[in-house]
Design a protein that fits this description.
Layout (H helix, E strand, L loop, with lengths): L8 H8 L5 E5 L5 H14 L7 E5 L2 H15 L7 E4 H12 L20 H13 L4 H7 L3 H19 L5 H14 L1 H10 L2 E4 L7 H11 L5 E5 L14 H4 L1 H4 L4 E5 L7 H11 L28 H17 L18 H10 L16 H14 L4 H7 L10
Parallel strand pairs: 1-5, 1-6, 2-3, 2-4, 4-5
Amino acid sequence: MDIFEGLNPMQKQAVEHMEGPLLIMAGAGSGKTKVLTCRIANLLAHGVAPYRILAITFTNKAATEMRDRVDRMIGDAAKDVWLSTFHAFCARFLRREIEATELYKRKKLNLDDKQYTPASVLNAISNAKNQLQGPHTFKKLADGFFQEKVADIYEIYQKQLRDNNALDFDDLLMVAVTLLEEHEDIREKYQRRFQYILVDEYQDTNGAQYQLTKILAAGHHNLCVVGDADQSIYGWRGADIRNIMDFENDYPDATTIKLEQNYRSTKTILAAANAVIENNTERKKKKLWTENPEGEKVTTYQAMDERDEANFIATTIRKQKTIFNASYGDMAILYRTNAQSRILEEGLMNAHIPYTMVGGLKFYDRKEIKDIVAYLRVIFNPLDSVSLLRIINVPKRGIGQ
């Protein structure tokens, strides 16, 4: 198929770019996934070996979507392209190379688990790992009594992981970066391998992801990043907006292309979005535009409290159904946190409006599935005492607490 079919001039320019660093500032709904897919196709069309292309996305869903698109466009030749999330890439890399590390081979602190909740401690450790801070570095930088205690927990936590021959989610990034930094032969092997690197949602990368990308791209300097500072929403989990803001400082020879045509929204929605975004202090200027219709006006409602909000939503839905004969299945309520769902459900039930909750308990969160996976983990890794303790009396076999 024609790789450039349906691309606008700026998209075509981004796809055609071959050598050197490239920053694609892609506004919302500007077709960035299509650009990335076509860019991979163009590299393959120019004779680049599939295994020399590394494409990184942020979610498994995005990786699957891009994989499907590339496969449909290119066929079997695309199957050897390294296309995955950051964590999936690191897991694949570590399975091949972790033997080069010195990893893998009880102490209790008697702390109040109400003051040092597992969630808050794990969040602090996660943030430390995403900034490539091991237990000793974290202890040196500890600010205040809470962080000092977290540093003690962090050290024991890492020992427990090693005793169980395990890595946690954040270790995948930190250990991969550490291995690349400390082993020149492995570092050079992967720098030579990946001739072209593409990273999606670059505005949401954290310190570890930034460093991983920088190390791998040092071989050929053909790093293409796609992102938009205006869409950076993950600062709370370690994302550093400076990574995309400073890209042109990191790579002075970089080419910058802006994708400003929006294919998703109406003119009214874009006008509202642009008016909000213009208030951001840290951003690279761009102006989204569209050839789509004007569309309906945006409306807002300032509720007195959460119950007033729920009643307003229920009343609006009822009006859409009774006056305009709209289908309930064509309406959706988006809310920010799970805690909000109870009041919203009460409002719908009081108005006798049928609804379906999207989400709920995920397949892998069910007890019986977790038990089966724990059995498989113990079979695969006999040192995994956490999984062993989960299933040692499942089904019940007379073993007490």
